[in-house]
Specification:
heterodimer, A: alpha/beta, 30% strand, B: alpha/beta, Rossmann fold, nine-stranded mixed beta sheet
Chain lengths: 309, 252
């Protein structure tokens, strides 16, 4: 059994954490060959060769593979697919763009966001934003899988796999890169932040969201919001945490003035520690909170911000 | 230019999901169902293209059970011109896999020749995030996924994509498959007169067999379970106690 793992390579650099976690997830499936593709990918290939459990590294460098465009990347993977039973990747936005395309070109289903490997054909994955866990058994000859990285530990470093350079597949020439814009905020990115402070409808206005932002900045946290707060115009849509927004699982999640609607809980209930501050002691958010404080947020949050100093 | 918009009937995002006792899936009988929220954004974008004079016709498609007709009526009430219902299952619990959906959509694209297909980036039931990419692969078209901004200009479209850590802008060749993310727009509500008008708009009924597509699933559902419950927490009496507890837990 052999596994081809698409490494996460951004601007020539290997995203070690995501790639090493996918290597761990793949260990039970067979010998792991890591594919590093990009306009420059040699350095990423050298780094991937050091991940424990990697049998071989393939490096494909070509201008068409820069910027992680789906069409040429999928064409490359399909050209290599004959040698592998499993084609896998960490479940990043890049892989979610590429892997379903690969699967359809191979006439197989994709298994997105797998959280556990039961056997070579059987995988567990969350559905309904994690409100249910489903075990699925694939009858496809080849399995195309993305692994949710948050549920696997990163493989260690210390390996010395061989590195082979390969050519790119023909570029279908369907799309061109224009530009990348990295988020302008000094705050961490919402989906990968270690701490998230979110405000809900209880915050009451866009102006009062500054209280939430001040606490977030004190904790070095990303700022989130419930859908109710977004719909009320208190916070921008890209802050939305929930089933229709972003799914987060930080070490610490602080929910302020959030009642805890199902759709919000779906986006944050896998956080390690949840703190809820709400004046309504009946609010459902307290049922998932590790630490609940029944209090008026306008006095409690500034006090908390000050005392965390 | 025609715009094709696939829409899916899913459990309403405000309904609590319950796993069936026999572990076969999530209970969808007698539960409020709505249009997948990402698909609403796709419908809205299609209607805006028509309002801006860039599209002539908006066609909504749904593939699933007969009841998906309601979802199509919602799309028509929002402003789609006509609808195609492809019946591919009898039981409301049967989910048609993205690969089968993409194969049926590919046949519809061949028939209708749209200039662009606008899809939701994922359905909030199976969370696969795959149909658009798969359709794009089957047609050999360009793909612009997770779009937060779309600007169609003749033979190309500029698509700004929500990616990990920021935004990426691509120029994709038309015809294209574009999958939409949350920030693209805010979908309108259908007005009562438009809901009434929608009842008179054309809705074609087909079956998966009409398109010669075998919808047998590739993934067998072995079991569905509730996620692990969180252990009950505690209520603290003051901010001081909260700070103390957070320090004890090593969280701050």
């Amino acid at each position: 059994m052999a596994v081809l793992l698409l490494a996460e390579v951004t601007s020539g650099e290997l995203a070690m954490d995501a790639t090493a976690k996918a290597v761990t997830a793949s260990q039970a499936l067979g010998d792991v060959t890591v594919l590093c593709a990009g306009a420059s990918a040699a350095a990423a290939g050298e780094a991937a060769a050091k991940i424990d459990g990697v049998a071989k590294v393939l490096v494909a460098e070509d201008a068409s593979l820069g910027h992680r465009l789906a069409e040429p990347t999928a064409a490359l993977i399909v050209s290599l697919a004959g040698d592998y039973d499993h084609i896998v990747a960490p479940a990043t936005t890049d892989a979610k763009n590429v892997m379903p395309r690969v699967a359809a070109l191979l006439d197989v289903m994709v298994i997105s966001d797998a959280t556990a490997v039961i056997d070579a054909d059987t995988f567990e994955r969350p559905i309904y934003a994690g409100n249910a866990m489903q075990t699925v058994k694939s009858s496809d000859a080849k399995k195309v899988i993305t692994f949710r990285t948050a549920t696997f530990d990163a493989a260690g470093e210390g390996g010395s796999a061989s590195v082979e350079t390969i050519g790119a597949a023909e570029n279908p020439g369907l799309s061109e890169w224009v530009e990348d814009k990295v988020a302008a905020s000094d705050r961490p990115e919402l989906t990968s932040a270690g701490v998230v402070v979110s405000g809900g409808r209880g915050v009451g206005s866009e102006e009062d969201f500054k209280i939430i932002e001040a606490l977030a900045d004190k904790l070095g946290a990303a700022v989130g919001a419930s859908r109710a707060a977004v719909d009320s115009g208190y916070a921008p849509n890209d802050w939305q945490v929930g089933q229709t927004g972003k799914v987060v699982a930080p070490d610490l999640y602080v929910a302020v003035g959030i009642s805890g609607a199902i759709q919000h809980l779906a986006g944050m209930k896998d956080s390690k520690i949840i703190v809820a501050i709400n004046k309504d002691e009946e609010a459902p958010i307290f049922q998932v909170a590790d630490f609940g404080l029944v209090a008026d947020l306008f006095s409690a949050v500034p006090e908390l911000t000050e005392k965390l100093g | 230019m025609k715009v094709l918009v696939p829409v899916k009937r899913v459990i309403d995002y405000n309904v609590k999901v319950r796993v069936k006792a026999d572990g076969s899936g999530v209970d969808l009988a007698n539960v409020k169902m709505s249009m997948n929220p990402f698909d609403e954004i796709a419908v809205e974008e299609a209607i805006r293209l028509k309002e801006a004079g860039k599209a002539d016709e908006v066609i909504a498609v749904s593939i699933g059970v007969k009841q998906s007709q309601e979802t199509l009526r919602t799309a028509l009430a929002m402003g789609a011109d006509r609808a195609i219902l492809v019946i591919a299952a009898d039981d409301v619990h049967t989910d048609i896999e993205p690969l089968s959906v993409a194969k049926i959509l590919a046949k519809i694209v061949e028939e209708e020749q749209p200039g662009v297909v606008l899809c939701g980036k994922q359905a909030i039931d199976n969370d696969m995030n795959a149909t658009g990419q798969m359709l794009s692969a089957l047609l050999g078209w360009s793909q612009g996924t997770f779009a937060s901004e779309v600007d169609i200009d003749g033979d190309t479209a500029k698509v700004t994509r929500e990616v990990d850590g920021g935004l990426q802008t691509l120029s994709v060749k038309m015809p294209a498959i574009i999958t939409v993310d949350l920030r693209l727009n805010e979908p309108r509500y259908a007005s009562l007169p438009n809901i009434m008008k929608a009842k008179k708009k054309p809705l074609d009924e087909k079956t998966a067999a009409d398109y010669g597509v075998d919808v047998t699933p590739r993934l067998e559902i072995v079991k569905t379970v509730e996620p692990a419950e969180r252990a009950a927490g505690i209520i603290v009496g003051s901010v001081d106690e909260l700070v103390e507890k957070l320090k004890e837990a090593g969280a701050v």
